[in-house]
User: Fold these one by one.
Assistant:
Number 1:
Amino acid sequence: MKNTAKDTIKYLINGNNKYVNEHEPEFFEKLKDAQSPSVTLVTCSDSRVQTSIFGIETTDELFVIRNIGNQVLSTFGSIDYGIYYLKTPILLILGHTRCGAIKAGMSNYAGESLDIIRELNHLAIPLKMVEINKNDNDENIWIKAVEQNVDYQIKLALSKYSELVEQGKLTIIGMIDDFLNIYEKGEGRVIISNINGENNKEKLKNCQLFENLSDDLKNKYFIS
């Protein structure tokens, strides 16, 4: 895909033709009248972050909401639909390494267009909370900011959906798509960073939600 619009269209059409050929009509039958996703996913618009990282057929499984910086404040209407109408038991906030919105939010972005400025302004609060040590390099600061932003978005979500969380009807999960292997768990692995506002590493590992995970998987999917 790349190059010209003509090349890109051919790439997309060929891909869709392959998709159609790989799915029987019965697959689409259940989609005709309703949707029944399991997860409301808020993630970044970054093209490097795709639902294919979960390795499953995500059609009718993920109700996806995207914007720069995986923010909830500007998309609560869409999130409400996933939570209140589709009744997904999970709200997943998915950040990612080398997030451009986070980097821009930590810089002077006054020269950007008005609409980009408006979106980046919502990141100002979490990015001010990032604790920087004298030994931190730019990459350390960047990933701390990504983590802080995920935590903040979950905090905002909890302020609205806390009653559902307390009733056990909703779990709010924070993850980071690490395609750079920053956490040294393997390129492309999603790292679990927050559950319902809890970001203590040891407490997360011992959360009942992950009782069915082996110790090996826990070591791979949580920050060491």
Number 2:
Amino acid sequence: MSDTPWVSLFSGGKDSSWALYRALEADRPVERLVTVHPDGDSYMYHTPATRLARLAAESIGIDLLEVEPGDFETDSVVDSGERGDAELEPLEQALGTLADEWDGIGGVTAGAVESEYQTTRIQAMCDRLDAELFAPLWREEPRALADAMLDAGFEIVVIQVAAYGLDESWLGRTLDRDAIAELEALNEEYGVHLLGEGGEFETFVVDGPHMDRRVELGYETAWEGDRGHVEITDAQLE
């Protein structure tokens, strides 16, 4: 395996955190976490509470590179394919700068589960950077992934919901085995994806085996009738 440094695409959510954890388990030399902060909705990136990635990165002990909202504008792009490409550009530019600094990037981790839209673009970016793509969640069985995360000791909190069957009580809820069982029932009744892959819900990992200190969250809930999110009022490392 090459010693060339790796980067991990990282939002602090369960999927990107699991990809990072698996990469570290496999001794990939991850030397930078990279968080993109979209301005509003995004076709390519996890959007809620991405600022929490700073605390998570501090707990993990890997430096964080942040790509800011002002670095890209996509509101005028109507075609979904063109918008995805436009959203990817600032990330690729940031990784290109790292590649120049490091004399190459060995690989990139990504937490994609089923999205061809995201994965094909990230793979193409990796090809252009001559970097390996490590996507350990790709096309894996959702229940097996959920069980693996819990078995490993991930503490996962739901921070946004947007699906029929998920009400305000899910905001701030820990995604434990009881919650997974309820999601399986909601999948059967309403088609809710067990891992929220269709945007049904978003998460943040407050603790795990790859973290030295737990992230303590203070929040209020904001509910809009059929969807909602947590408003973070305080966040610190325990």
Number 3:
Amino acid sequence: MLTKVRNEFKITLMRRLLDAFITAVVLLLFIPTFLILLSWNAIPGDSLYPLKTGLEDITLLLLSGTPLVPKVSMKFTDRRFDEATKLLNQKGSTVGYDLLVSEAQQTQTLITSKNDRIDTATFVQNIDQYQQKIEQTKVQVQVKSGISVSQQTPSIMPTQVPVPLQTPPSATSQPVGQEIIVTKPETVVIKEETPQQVLQKLNDTEAQLEEIKKQVQKNELQGGNSDQGQGLDKNQDHGNQNSSDHKSSSNNP
């Protein structure tokens, strides 16, 4: 009888411990999920935007060293482009395009470190799409403001009023294992800009994205040439070895 009571007590205790464990796991998963959903639609200037980008940095850190890092970083770059478009449409600010370029630079670094041809091709295609959509945005700005193509300054404007940032606009990199996690400016001051300033920023963004694309393609080309060179060296070594074996066999009676 006593043994039966002890067994029932152990079973009850195990069930309670299991229920407590499951509850703890659910809470641990619920909190980050709730934060992600809460900050999902945040754009630069919103109070929840640092939370959004902070969760992204944590995600990259947790995935550090895996092949998923470049792919996830490309998704975050897509986010920056969507945010830049929304911010310009809603508040007339181009701050989001600075963050887009910064995120694209981080993605470039991660893709370069992995040297994956599929990721490279996908990223180049994404940049082409960004540039096409930026061209469409430029046309919309021109039509809305009544600026003709001839009135638009093709080069750097003589006087350009910068959008103030509370943190430096240039990204700083911090090594994490074999990956590079780039800390981006998150706290920004949103200010409506003139159509000329918007067009200038869009032109600059296109040029910066083009440079990023060229660097990624250049790295892929160099990687391919390196692989071909290694293959030629191996074939040459194999040929020299065969020649040496043939000579030694011909010298032996």
